[in-house]
Structures are given as structure tokens and as C-alpha cells.
Design brief:
The complex is a heterodimer of chains A (221) and B (80). With 221 residues, chain A is an alpha/beta fold. Chain A is built from six helices and eleven strands. Chain A has a nine-stranded mixed sheet, sandwiched between helices. A two-stranded antiparallel ribbon of chain A has the order 5-8. Chain B has a single domain, classed as Phosphoribosylformylglycinamidine synthase subunit PurS (Mth169, Chain: A), CATH 3.30.1280.10. Chain B is elongated, with a radius of gyration of 16 Å.
């Protein structure tokens, strides 16, 4: 099992991501610097962590999504390697064109930082099957630009294809159709604003996030 | 030459910042204020005098980085 976490200038959830991956796989992930032109060979899973890459200049995730290592990540994602983007990582994956839609400024214009009750919408996805038929989870959210936008035709299409993986039970940011997490059409790339890597310890934020990592990493062991 | 690139949200995309500005203008007593949309102005200096080549280059910049086609449109103005 070989996993990696991409680190950009301004990433601040990379160590949380590493802790979560190590907790589930028993092995520390490789930390890959954004300026590297290639990812290591033979990766089984890649995580794009949260934070404020490049200070959110231009648009959140825009500059990071054009960095050298992302060109290689896009190729690997298209070849089927599972990729998870959380928070700023979600913004980066939409900016890179791997996921539909865009993340805009929160409708209330405020930074939101709280536990978010969520509904798992698709239990058959590679990222959620270990939840069984459990529908309700709580993951922390902490973002200023989490307002998911896509045109109506795209929204209808991703709903129809089962690409809406997570929905907010109480919309914190104005996201269309309460969408909190979406996958690509193939199902190997997931982007989400809530932080599952901050919900892996009973003493810190609960353990609702563990099954997400077990879903995607369990089959790879 | 210099390129001035205006990046603005597409029609139909909610602009919470524009709405906040509109609310604030009304609060200050400015009457007759309708919708407000906030965009970006980006200035790029180019080391070329060829307007056509410059336009093509700036358009590529917009498509690759400066605007997000999911939510934004852009316009380009070139000056010497």
C-alpha cells in the first residue's frame, strides 16, 4: 500500500491527512512537494489536503491546480488512481477540471467553522461503501469558499449518475442542492468540503471519518 | 503593450459579495441602486507590439488560468 499527500505552500491539513492515512493503513504516506514534476510510481491513493494554497490568490485552488505535480496527478486520476480532495483540495480538483462545478464564496460571506451534519447520498461509491446503510455522519467544516455551484444541466446529470456523494443536512454556505461532496463520473475522484481526516479520533471530533478512509483504502490492502 | 482583462461572474451565478455591496450602498442612502456585480481587473504587461499575437496570448492566459469558465466570463482590452 503506497499513499501520498500533496503539499502546497499554504496547505495546513497535510499533517492531519497523513495522520488519518497512517491510522488506517499502518504506514505513513509520502509527502510530495507541489514543485515536483512527477508523483512517485505505483501510488495506490493520493490525497489533496485542505489549507490556503497560494493564499487563495486569484481563486481558491486556482494557482495550485496549475502546479507541476498536478499535471501528473490529473494523468494518474484519469488512469484510475483513487484521489481524495478535502476543502482546499476539493477547490483544487474542480479548478484542475477533474470534478464538476466550482466552489464560490460562502453565501453568508462568513468563514464557517463547526461540526456539519451530513447525509451519505451514495452508499455504493468507492469512498462510502464501508458505511453500510448508515446515512448520517458529522464531519467538521472550516472554509470561506465552499459554496458549490454548477449549472442546472450539470446538477441534474451528476445527481442522475450518483456523483453526489454527500449532502449537508443544514446548508452552511449556500451550496446548490446542499451538495457537500461530489465524485467524477468514473467514481475514483472525490472532492468534499467537510474534513473526514479530522474525524478519526474519539477524543478529537469523533470517528465518523474512519469508514471513508476504510472504504477507499480497505480494498487496496 | 498592456492588456487589461476584466473577469466577471456569468449571468445567473449568485454574487454574494455584490449583494453585500448593494446592501451597503442602500444603507448609506444611495437611492436607485439595483444589482451590483463584483469582478476583477487584471493588468498584464506584454513585451510585444503585435496586437493580434498579444490578443491570442492573453486569450490563452484567460482560458488556462485567469478565468474559471464554469462561473466566469472575461473581456480583453489592449493598449500601447
Amino acid at each position: 500500500m503506497k499513499t501520498a499527500v500533496i503539499v502546497f505552500p499554504g496547505s495546513n491539513c497535510d499533517r492531519d491527512a497523513a495522520m488519518a492515512l497512517e491510522a488506517v493503513t499502518g504506514k505513513a504516506p509520502l509527502m510530495v512537494w507541489h514543485g515536483d514534476s512527477q508523483l512517485p510510481d505505483g501510488l495506490d491513493f493520493i490525497m489533496v489536503p485542505g489549507g490556503f494554497s497560494y493564499g487563495d490568490y486569484l481563486r481558491s485552488g486556482a494557482v495550485a491546480s496549475r502546479s507541476p505535480v498536478m499535471q501528473d496527478l490529473v494523468k494518474k486520476a484519469e488512469a484510475g488512481v483513487p484521489v481524495l480532495g478535502v476543502c482546499n483540495g476539493f477547490q483544487i480538483l474542480t479548478e484542475a477540471g477533474l470534478l464538476p462545478g466550482a466552489l464560490m464564496r460562502n453565501a453568508g460571506l462568513r468563514f464557517v467553522c463547526e461540526p456539519a451534519p451530513l447525509t451519505i447520498e451514495n452508499h455504493n461509491s468507492a469512498f462510502t461503501h464501508a458505511y453500510g446503510d448508515r446515512k448520517d455522519v458529522v464531519f467538521p467544516i472550516a472554509h470561506h469558499d465552499g459554496n458549490f455551484f454548477a449549472d442546472q444541466a450539470t446538477l441534474d446529470r451528476i445527481e442522475g449518475e450518483g456523483q453526489v456523494i454527500l449532502r449537508y443536512r443544514k446548508n452552511p454556505n449556500g451550496s446548490m442542492r446542499d451538495i457537500a461532496g461530489v465524485s467524477n463520473e468514473k467514481g475514483n475522484v472525490l472532492g468534499m468540503m467537510p474534513h473526514p481526516e479530522r474525524a478519526i479520533d474519539a477524543h478529537h471530533g469523533g470517528t465518523d471519518g474512519l469508514a471513508l478512509f476504510e472504504s477507499i483504502l480497505g480494498g487496496l490492502k | 503593450m498592456k492588456a487589461r482583462i476584466h473577469v466577471f461572474l456569468k449571468d445567473g451565478v449568485l454574487d454574494p459579495q455584490g449583494e453585500a455591496i448593494s446592501g451597503s450602498l442602500k444603507h448609506l442612502g444611495f437611492e436607485g441602486v439595483g444589482s451590483v456585480r463584483q469582478g476583477k481587473l487584471i493588468e498584464v504587461e506584454l513585451h510585444t507590439a503585435d496586437a493580434e499575437a498579444a490578443h491570442d496570448q492573453v486569450k490563452a492566459m484567460c482560458d488556462k488560468l485567469l478565468a474559471n469558465p464554469v462561473i466566469e466570463n472575461y473581456s480583453i482590452e489592449l493598449s500601447a
